[in-house]
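Final report, Chapter 2: Outcomes

The project's central promise was a pipeline that accepts a single protein chain and returns its three-dimensional structure in a standardized token representation, suitable for archiving and comparison. That pipeline is now operational. To close this chapter, we reproduce one record exactly as it appears in the project archive, with the input sequence first and the structure output second.
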Amino acid sequence: MNPLSKLFTPGEQRILLFLMGFALLGLSARFFARESASDVDSLRVTLEQSDLRIDLRNPVLEDLMALPGIGEKKARAIMAYAESPGFARRSDLMKVHGIGEKLYDGMLPYLIPLDNETAFQDSLLGFSSQTGQVNINRAGVQQLMEIEGIGEVLATRIVRYRNKHGRFKRIDDLLKVNGIGEKTLQKMKPEITLGE
């Protein structure tokens, strides 16, 4: 015997069953959405913290696909360009269909400098050779950790903020990164630059 039959009519029972099913569906969708978002975030942190370094003269498809914003199609286009005409410098990457300046900037910390690039171009990895400052718009997690007062967690937050919101236009924009206050910023200022 159905215990709900004493409290609800058959029509009300169907409505109640429908609402419970709908609520269960919503909860399961919310659970799976949260789980997949955390997987993406953990993958991004793993990539940012990894020692992934790509030589454009001899790229590996899987490594290219691990870069932010690079799927299989763009990775294959990069591979084709590497075969002919080939990369003379890292900036040639922007000649590949689908690779613009913003995507290139995100990839640059993972690219090994090519032999014929100048010391200035090598500094695009995140360091300014003239001043010894770290370029906060290009540096990866490891380079950012060389700044006084910046550990791995804060460096990762800076890279995440930059990936989400774009380049820092002013040094004071670092205050928008969770964990950076006025005191930390004052310690950092002599060691950082926005680049060109």
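Archive annotation: The CA atoms of residues 2 and 13 lie 10 Å apart.
This record, like all others produced under the grant, will remain available to the consortium after the project formally closes.
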